[in-house]
Write a structure and sequence with these properties.
The chain is an alpha/beta fold. Helices cover 40% and strands 11% of the residues. It contains 13 helices and 12 strands. The chain has helices at residues 19-34, 42-52, 57-61, 71-80, 85-91, 144-151, 164-172, 190-198, 214-227, 248-267, 271-283, 291-310, 316-328; strands at residues 2-3, 66-67, 103-108, 114-120, 129-132, 158-161, 178-180, 203-207, 233-236, 269-270, 332-333, 338-339. Strands 1-5-4-3-2 form a 5-stranded antiparallel beta sheet. A 5-stranded mixed beta sheet has the order 7-6-8-9-10, sandwiched between helices. Helix 9 crosses helix 11 (271-283) and helix 12 runs antiparallel to helix 13.
Length: 385
């Protein structure tokens, strides 16, 4: 097993011949979790952890979770089940001294075959999660084998959460169209977005956890999706849509699945809308805009818009343009993303005040900062870059 930051880099490649061994290993872990003899030892901490996550004994019975006890005993049990000592030893399934006492669960590919395992410390000690297997190359999300039959036809979107236990708990409650990143949103690479699209996932709703770095991680995840050759449409359920609740787990425990569905109905925003607002927030100094910060935000918005339109992407005018226009106080033709014909303007549609008209000079004589194409100020010409 390797800790979360190094997952997918240190383990040997999983091969199909190990599938029966992996299934047997998980079966033994599951048996041990439900064995009354484990309750006074490792089981006490494990069941306390499950209770904190809202997983009752009834829910655990239909959730893929087990518990690993003594490693040497596990290896002996696998030999008793017909696997050779060499097979067990080479699998390294029970070789890590950090494993005893950890909750264990399988990571399955789209066909339902176990390709890796996660192992969580029940008391949250570091490393909280260990991973066995190069799973990110074999499945783009944890729990996807359960969600795919629900979302692959395109009628429903996939809810993608960060925490493994949030996804498992929702699936145990009957909300099947959910999967977990298995780490922070920073782990959502373009390759994983492309893999989701190739499996038939047409739309993903990201549900990031709050926190100091939440905005940066979310923007990274969005940028990875937009950089992918092919990716699902991306929506976002921001943490403020949860209302008084601290997490999706907390929301559903107190408000039920109906509460989650209500939050999804009223709180989901388009990924382009969120991208625009995150871009603006990075350039704005609190609630204050300066002309230089406006120009910086404007130029970044130009680059992003151009990149996406070159890729033939739609929805930018509907979701990305309006937040930029309103925040910067600029009015332009949304269809062409260029300034509209000069007309009397007021309110949020008024162009940025204080920008002088361009002098009547040749292109080479224009002051620095003016667009050499239309001889206008960059904040009034979106084709300026």
């Amino acid at each position: 097993m390797v800790p979360e930051p190094a997952a997918g880099h240190l383990d040997r490649k999983t091969c199909p011949a190990r599938a029966p061994l992996y299934e047997a290993f998980f079966d033994e872990c599951r048996r041990f979790l439900h064995d009354p003899s484990s309750r006074e030892g490792y089981g006490k901490k494990a069941w306390a952890c499950l209770a904190r996550e809202g997983l009752t004994k009834e829910l655990v019975a239909r959730t893929p979770i087990g518990l690993l006890g003594d490693c040497s005993q596990m290896r002996a049990r696998l030999v008793e089940r017909g696997f050779s000592p060499q097979e067990v030893r080479e699998s390294e399934l029970a070789a890590d001294p950090r494993l005893p006492g950890r909750l264990v669960g399988p990571i399955r590919d789209a066909q339902g075959e176990i390709v890796a395992f996660w192992a969580r410390d029940p008391e949250g000690q570091s490393p909280r999660f260990l991973f066995k297997g190069d799973w990110k190359r074999q499945t783009p999300a944890i729990g996807l084998e359960v969600a795919l039959p629900v979302v692959a036809d395109g009628s429903l979107g996939l809810l993608l959460v960060e925490e493994i236990f949030d996804a498992l708990w929702l699936q145990a409650q009957g909300f099947l169209g959910v999967a977990a990143v298995g780490g922070s949103l920073a782990d959502l690479t373009s390759a994983r977005w492309e893999a989701m699209a190739s499996l038939g996932v047409g739309c993903v709703t990201l549900a990031p956890r709050g926190g100091r770095s939440a905005d940066r991680l979310l923007e990274n995840a969005l940028d990875s999706a937009y950089a992918a050759r092919r990716a699902p449409a991306v929506l976002v359920l921001p943490p403020d849509a949860w209302g008084e609740f601290r997490s999706i787990n907390d929301l559903v425990r107190r408000g039920g699945i109906e509460g989650l569905c209500s939050a999804l109905d009223r709180g989901v925003v388009h990924g382009y809308d969120r991208k625009a607002r995150l871009l603006l927030a990075r350039h704005r100094n609190g609630s204050v805009w300066t002309e230089s910060s406006k120009l910086a935000a404007w130029n970044e918005a130009v680059r992003f818009y151009r990149q996406r339109t070159r890729a033939g992407v739609e929805d930018l005018d509907e979701f990305f343009v309006p937040p930029i226009a309103v925040e910067l106080g600029i009015r332009w033709d949304l269809a062409r993303f260029c300034p509209a014909d000069p007309t009397p303007r007021s309110g949020v549609e008024a162009e940025t005040p204080g920008i002088p008209s361009p002098p009547d000079r040749t292109h080479s004589q224009l002051p620095r900062g003016y667009c050499p194409i239309h001889r206008c100020h960059p904040l009034e010409c979106f084709c300026f870059d």
